[in-house]
Amino acid sequence: MSHYQMGVLETRFAKIIWENEPLSSGQLVGLAAQELNWKKSTTFTVLRRLCDKGIFQNNKGTVTSLLSPDQYATAQSTQFVNEAFCGSLPAFLAAFTAGRKLTEEEISELRDIIKSQE
After folding, report:
1. CA separation for the pair 63, 23 (Å, rounded)
2. Segment 54-93, tens digit of pLDDT
3. Which H/E stretch holds residue 62?
């Protein structure tokens, strides 16, 4: 799996694409100028970087996503657990919940997730 990672500004830029796709590269330049105060060159540099990461594509001037926001979040979460916890979900959950008590609702949701995987 590729390393899907975006900084804060890249994430804001990605959100513009996800909320407006498909869109022309010209439309994207306009939205990035309006919402991020970016110049055309900055927009195309960041777009190219995110295309190289496999998150978006620019096909003949039409920008679309290769990963939905949910797919991106899943890839990032999986990557984090793999790198930080050697792929161990129980180790991640133990670290995540250390020092805080889970609510009954959280416990119920986790049980439902586990049951759905059985």
Report:
1. 5
2. 999 999 999 999 999 999 999 889 988 999 999 998 999 8
3. strand 62-65
Residue with tokens 């496999």: 54
CB 50 within 8 A of CB 13: yes
pTM attached to this predicted model: 0.76
Structure tokens belonging to residue 69: 């926001």
Q: Is the domain defined by 8-69 classed in CATH 1.10.10.10?
A: yes
Query: What is the domain partition of the chain in residue ranges?
Result: 8-69, 88-118
- The structure tokens 């830029």 sit at 13
Quote the DSSP letter at residue 87.
T
User: Which amino acid type is present at position 30?
Assistant: G
Query: CA 17 to CA 63: how far, in whole Å?
Result: 8
The verdict on whether omega for the bond into residue 22 sits within 30 degrees of 0, i.e. cis, is yes
Hey, is 5 helix, strand or coil? coil
